[in-house]
Write a structure and sequence with these properties.
Strand order of the largest sheet: 1-2-3-4-5-7-6
Number of strands: 7
Largest sheet: 7 strands, mixed
Number of helices: 5
Structural class: alpha+beta
Radius of gyration: 15 Å
Oligomer: single chain
Shape: globular
């Protein structure tokens, strides 16, 4: 991908875009889906932060983080989705998202999970500096069943080392 990805805080006006993106064919097995009321509730809750990724002013993806700027300094990237997977937008968006979290908050641990068979997501997260920690058995309740989840994280010292190396 040649164009830079910009990131901005989402607003409730972005809910239609977020919901359309969650519902892209193929995402039903990988990305959670909320109805409008649940998204509105999250927007009203300061524990959540939505980000919209844009390329030349056009929205191309979103991320939802839980426990944004928490007192415990631990934040979860709860949901990430792009409108055109496989074009490098997700990697670029994740790099900007990680930088934003560490720059705008005092977060010490940023974590994310994906299903172990989702190698595309794992490669994307690792390219953004996340390190695989292991499998949390049955930790994801998805479509009415408990599924295993690969947990990845990035700690502030890891991120700072990457910044100094760049």
């Amino acid at each position: 991908m040649s164009e830079p990805v910009d990131l901005r805080r989402g607003t409730s006006d972005d809910i239609p875009f977020i919901m359309r993106t969650e519902r892209i064919d193929g995402y039903e097995a990988l990305v959670g889906r909320w109805d409008e009321a649940r998204h509105r509730s999250a927007f009203a809750d300061p524990r959540y932060a939505y980000f919209i990724a844009e390329v030349t002013g056009r929205p191309v993806g979103f991320a939802l983080l839980r426990d944004w700027a928490s007192r415990e300094r631990v934040t979860l990237v709860q949901r990430v989705a792009v409108i055109e997977p496989g074009r490098g937008i997700g990697k670029a968006m994740m790099r900007v998202l990680v930088d934003t979290a560490f720059r705008e908050t005092e977060v010490h641990r940023l974590s994310i999970g994906c299903f172990p068979e989702n190698l595309r997501a794992r490669r994307t997260y690792e390219a953004a500096g996340f390190v695989a920690e292991g499998i949390a058995r049955g930790s994801a309740f998805f479509h009415g069943e408990h599924r295993d989840e690969l947990i990845l994280s990035q700690l502030r010292p890891d991120w700072e080392a990457l910044q100094h190396a760049a």
